[in-house]
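Most newcomers find our protein records easier to grasp once they have seen one. Read left to right, the backbone structure tokens trace the chain's path through space. Once this layout is familiar, the rest of the handout is easier to follow. The record below serves as our worked example for the rest of this section:


***
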Amino acid sequence: MSDLLEVRKSADDLSAEDKAGLIAHLLASLPHPPLGPKDHEIDRREKEMDEGSVTPISHTDFLDQIGRA
């Protein structure tokens, strides 16, 4: 924990340009977020809804079903 506090203090003393460089470096070092659905998956689901082969539910119903209401 003391290492983090030391890094924060050092970062506070950097110029705006150096802070921006540090931020860019840290962001680039983070793992990439998972990708969303592919276009063909979205197209397939929209087609299913348009054809009526699936029944859409509201966001509230979805949250209820997964226990997050």
User: Anything to note?
Assistant: The longest helix spans residues 16-29. The radius of gyration is 23 Å.
